[in-house]
Write a structure and sequence with these properties.
globular; 375 residues; Rossmann fold; 44% helix; alpha/beta; single chain
Length: 375
Amino acid sequence: MTIVYIINQLRKSGPVEVLYNLVKNLHRFSVTPVIIRMMEDDTDRSITPAFKELGIEVLEFSYSFIDLELRTRWVAQSLEQLFVGRKVDLIHTHGYHPVLVASYMHLDCPKIETMHCICQEDFVSSKGKILGTYMNWRYLRHLKRLDAGVAISETGKMFYEKKLGGFSVLRIYNGVDVSKFNIREGVPQREWREKLDLPKDYIIFVVVGTVRKIKDPRTVIKAFLGLPDNIRESSLLLFLGKGNLLEECKQLAKGCPSIVFKGYTFNVDEYLKAADYAICASRSEGFGLSCVEALMTGVPVIASDIGPFREFTAGYPELQNLHFPVGRVDLLRDKMKYAFGHPIEIIAVANEIRDRFSTDRMVGNYVKLYQSLKK
């Protein structure tokens, strides 16, 4: 079975990491993946070489945003020509432009999309009200032309079922590499801190993800700055990621040496193993990969009270107690203050989370879907 995956970029991000974990394991099911990367990668975030090292065929293009937005049919026709005389069993898209392009392709095979976000919220947050609303309308309109959609949380599934009427929407949770994100057995926290040159005796909070509005980094910084002096001066707040709010956040944190911006890192798992708590303050998520990665590593998460995060902590009162309402600086500050004096042991939780959100389970569910759709 040959499956063509269409994506804008292969850059370090949650959706791309999930795609990597998926295609890395398909050989066990006699599935041959081919990846179409439609745009150039951001140079400091590219992980295209990692896909190539797997021996996967990656077809690289340099289409512009204008090409993909305004010349969509032309792009679709150009990509179709790549597969003349070549059997394609299924097209699997990841994202807004891939859906638009795939909807105009006339290859005789099923097409599915993994919906990595709540489009109505994410597009408006990242592109502004006018462009974001237009993109949301166009995405949903073209999504209906595909054969099925995969939501990555129950929250996402309910959203898309409501928006798309009779369109087939399934739920497959994202999978995390359990060999990488695991409890720090055998290597104590202090050794990870030594390796990363982090203070040994501080309480360390880690925030993983793009520094942009929908992740709400400003609320995290304001909450940290509002902590009592004795707590703030004995703590460290680490941001792992970049984004369009990075400079604004640096200015907001100016004068506080306990807030550190590390930029993009390829060893997030090591920082989690050195941390006491992770913070996920998102206003909206399709899934919340960084939250699951932290829990798998045995790190409790102070998380905004949104649907996907509630799914992860369901049945775990000690974690549910760490939720706070979206955007509430005062209540996030209180949760951080509480965390300072109340370490939480979640090894049992981490083991259960690993079973629920493993790469093996995700891959198995996608292969079942592929086989059910194959003509």
